[in-house]
Amino acid sequence: MRSCLAVIGNKGREGLDTFDSSELPVAGRNVLAFIILLGIFMFVIDGSVVSIALPTITRYFHADVAQTQWVITSYLVTVTSMLMIFGKIAERTGKVRLFLAGFVIFTMASVACGLSTTLSMLIFFRAIQAAGAAMSFSISTAIIFQIYHRGEQGRAMGYIGTTVSLASIAGPILGGYLVDYMGWKYIFLINLPIGIVLLALAAKYMKIEEEISKKLDLDWRGATVLIIFIVSLMLFLGDLSSNTALFIAEDPFFLLATLSLPAFVWIESHQKSPLLDLSIFRVKKFVLPIIAIILFIISSFSAFILGPFYFQGVMGYSPSQVGSVFLIVPAIMAFGSPLGGWIYDRYHFRYNSALGMIIVAASLLFSEW
């Protein structure tokens, strides 16, 4: 097994064009893929579980929605801020060390979230949990993409889509059951057994021999400004959601966000080794799918955050019933993701993202009727 997985470490740094996945036996590839997909499953299920429990958490801490939404937002802000940074750090630490360290932090922070006695503590440990998730997730998709043949990469992405969908299916069911019968704290404590299993498998089988950089070549200025931009933007949106009469131009977080974004662009355009190579945004095949993903996530998360409040507060559903309602989309995605990947591998259909967004837009429009 060690010799099989060593192929990734020796070839991974050379990029996707030079990686020969045929050198990796099927058994070794499947074991490594299972470990990575189990980790992705863990990240996703945590997000969907918390969405279902948010109304209960709001009542428990006697807070309003603008405050408790930071239980979700702090997680997303931290992950978004740290993904590129940890991806760069992996070149110095090695993928395996970063992956294992991330899951240790994620699992321990999950327990701390379950033991939190105040909303501030819960939000803080959610941010720590997200930092661990970013450490591991920053290199997860890259490894999956590398260990499959070029003609199988669409299918590999489909496996990730199926994993995300299955986690989304399990999350509402598990979250509704735990909140109904055990309490909201157990939606975080459930990560403990999953984390232990994953760490045991990773410690045993992820023996990847890697060529590690002798020094960390990280764009610290760009990383700092990126974090400032994302955090200030989220704080501004939080202010806006809690105060509709807010005069935008006078909000300090809005001013900080508008200043930090062009500063980040300027820094990256003058760096020899930038955190983000801005030239990638000239590639339409990269930009258009990214826009499609952003639009899809915005529409999905809007429904996932507001939906539980509507179904519980207006329709009178229990948390477990709300969980059942939110099964529809991930259930369809669980079957559709591998199918979409197979179609792409076979026919290389150029307009997958556009067609998908048309279907999503039509579905959202018809749901209003």
Q: Could you name the CATH class of the largest domain?
A: Mainly Alpha
Structural class: mainly alpha
* Outline: globular
Q: Percent of residues in beta strands?
A: under 5%
Along the chain, the helix and strand elements come as HHHHHHHHHHHHHHH
Q: What is the domain total for the residues?
A: 2
State the helix count: 15
CATH architecture of the largest domain: Up-down Bundle
Portion of residues in helices?
over 70%
CATH topological fold name of the largest domain: Growth Hormone, Chain: A
Mean pLDDT: 77
| Strand count | 0
User: What separation lies between the terminal Cα atoms?
Assistant: 55 Å
Rounded radius of gyration (Å): 21 Å
- Regions with little confidence, pLDDT below 50 for 5+ residues: 1-22
Characterize the largest beta sheet: strand count, sense, and whether it forms a barrel: none
CATH superfamily of the largest domain: MFS general substrate transporter like domains
Brief summary of the model shown:
This protein has 369 residues and is an all-alpha fold. It has 2 domains: 2-218 and 276-367, Up-down Bundle (Growth Hormone, Chain: A); 219-274. The chain has 15 helices and no strands.
